[in-house]
Specification:
Oligomer: single chain
Number of helices: 18
Strand order of the largest sheet: 1-2-5-4-3-6-7
Mean pLDDT: 88
Strand content: 15-25%
Low-confidence stretches: none
Radius of gyration: 25 Å
Helix content: 40-55%
Structural class: alpha+beta
Order of helices and strands: HHHHEEHEEEHEHEHHHHHHHEEEEHHHH
Amino acid sequence: MQAIIQSKFQCKVSWSKCYRSRCRVLSLIDGNLSDHYARVWDYGHELMRSNPGSTVRISVNINPDQTTTFHRIYVCFKAIKDGWKIGCRRVIGLDGCFLKGQCKGELLTAIGRDANNQIYPIAWAVVEVENKVNWTWFLELVSEDPSLDAGRGLCVISDQHKGLVEATKDIPAHVEHKQCARHIYANFRKVYSGIQFINMFWAAAKSTTEDDFKINMDRIKTLSEGAYDHLMAREPHTWCRAFFSSGLACESVENGIAECFNAVIVDARKNPLLAMLEEIRLYMMERFYNLREEAQKLEGDVCEAALLKMEEFAEDIRTWYAVPSGVNSYEIRNGFQSYGVDLEHHYCSCRLWDIAGIPCVHAHVAILYTNQDPKEFISTWLSKSNYMATYQSNILPVNGSNLWEETGYTKPLPPTARRMPGRPSVKRRRHLSEHEDKVLNFLAN
């Protein structure tokens, strides 16, 4: 601003004056902070009026003087619920991120995966702090919205935040719970570092059979018994592929897709409450339209991400050969290694085909041996029809604040500021191991 004023008006102004002017302009654009929280009930009413069937939950705290203070808000649009039920895999990633505006808080998100393995935000909520109480409240609402037989056949992926870990313990036993392997590794790296531990950990995490997992863990134990005990205490059945259930068409061992959404809305998180929620809504509304247009341009019956993943699985296909055993039954060999493949039931003894829904290298060899197209053996969860069905609904337009109907609820005040020590950071402070990983990846390439 100083440079622009200097070049346009030949006038020097101080940094503090530019800062105060900027703050005043932003307050005029976004409105005063108290105005945002005072109209939160009106905003929720407008969302449900314009998008019937949507879920908006608002909670306030009642003060001794009978005034109310904003507590939390939850939003889930009907179009998003319908799209997830029809076309998305039954995998939900949970994550939370800090708000960076004038009034602090946290944004909780539930992120799904569409047929093309892209982010599919299902619901989001603004809370005062990320703890067990708020996570439990959020999970209860999420489980009610995209209902699926009381959670049967559902998988939830989370990080290792204490409040979230405690809340996921209340998840019914028939809901599969995974922990993000990258967060497990980040904590493991703080104690046990080195390229050997890196390779051994990810080899163990990506093992698709229990025998392979035991072999990889024994290698870690040979190198360091402390490292072995550290990992075994972190519930390996939640972060190793060998223990994942089949039929979900998702082999991912990390929750990075949820953090992708946090990066998309990083600028929106600097805005006041209603401005931020509106930016998220507009982003989702435009995203639905754009992806629906892209889906219509797809060629073939399978999404591009699945085809790329299948090529990745079949990278060393030339080293394997098939030995027929019976009708649609083959033994795939490579030296002393061998796996059984049943094309009729879409099964391979390595279990990667069951977990990912995409033919592994062994299945790929068997399919080519029979002169068939491997694309026909990819799970229907990753089909073009599912992709188009996911985005067939629309998030309907919402009127501006000048047309919002006033509700009879008491206008809540902004929550009490929780100022943290030091200067507020814009970007998350990364652990040293994350920087080292970038250097190692650069040297490897």
